[in-house]
Design goal:
CATH topology of the largest domain: Rossmann fold
CATH superfamily of the largest domain: Response regulator
Structural class: alpha/beta
Shape: elongated
Order of helices and strands: EHEHEHEHEHHEEEEHEHHEE
CATH architecture of the largest domain: 3-Layer(aba) Sandwich
Number of strands: 12
Mean pLDDT: 84
Helix content: 40-55%
Strand content: 15-25%
Radius of gyration: 18 Å
Largest sheet: 5 strands, parallel
Strand order of the largest sheet: 2-1-3-4-5
Bound molecules: calcium ion
């Protein structure tokens, strides 16, 4: 079992994030190697040839984008999932013209990252055998004209795909899972983006405003003194 487990390399200089990802990925039966710098990441990549690389952008020394370039120069098919913290980092990652599955923005939920890693493993033909079919099946939520496809991580409005950021998608997904319930901003923060999230609860308002702008047909109600409710 141990021999056939897929290998994931985590290149992240923030030990709290690295440890959290390590914990969640191991729990899925994956073999995990941790590197805290770009140089170490390249070393471990050469040594272990992981199927998926979780790559922080802001690293001491060689940054994540350069690590990706060097890895891809040798193996163009390797799956790289970027972990981006700031808008300017995300801009640089998006400049690489990657798919939506190829980056997550911090703060993120470790469960979400694990789900994405599984998508990459499936693509690589090395789906985690421990994964149950129900965990990998596409879950669709229909909200009038709006369809939220969890498996494809895609939202359509009247059949047209609506571009959402990873954070907006996670927010919408959490609201879908708790449809009809009034959720506080804190519940939304923890539920949508993970309990390791720290910061201003008003971030929720900003993302909700974005969702309303992008999906005007959504019945996303403000619950005064509490937070929000998706009907
Ligand atoms: Ca970093």
């Amino acid at each position: 079992m141990e021999q056939s487990a897929a290998v994931v390399l985590v290149v992240e200089d923030d030990p709290s994030i690295a440890d959290l990802l390590d914990l969640y990925l191991r729990r899925e039966g994956l073999r995990v190697h941790l590197a805290d710098s770009g140089e170490r990441g390249l070393e471990l990549w050469r040594l272990h040839r992981p199927t998926v690389v979780l790559l922080d952008v802001g690293l001491p020394g060689i940054d994540g984008l350069e690590v990706c370039r060097r890895i891809r120069a040798t193996d163009p098919r390797v799956s790289v999932l970027f972990l981006t913290a700031r808008d300017e980092e995300l801009d640089r990652v998006l400049g690489l013209e990657l798919g939506a599955d190829d980056y997550v923005t911090k703060p993120f939920s470790p469960r979400e990252v694990v789900a994405r890693v599984k998508v990459h493993l499936r693509r690589a033909g090395l789906a985690d055998r421990a994964a149950t079919p129900s965990a990998t099946a596409a879950i669709r939520t229909v909200l009038g004209d709006v369809v939220v496809d969890e498996g494809r991580r895609e939202v359509t409005d009247r059949g047209a795909v609506v571009a959402l950021t990873a954070q907006e998608f996670d927010l919408l997904l959490h609201l879908c899972r708790n449809r009809g319930l009034a959720l506080s901003r804190r519940q939304i923060l923890d539920g949508a983006w993970g309990t390791d999230w720290v910061g201003d609860e008003r971030t929720v308002d900003v993302h909700v405003a974005q969702l309303r702008r992008k999906l005007p047909d959504l019945t996303l109600a403000t619950v005064r003194g509490v937070g929000y409710r998706l009907d």
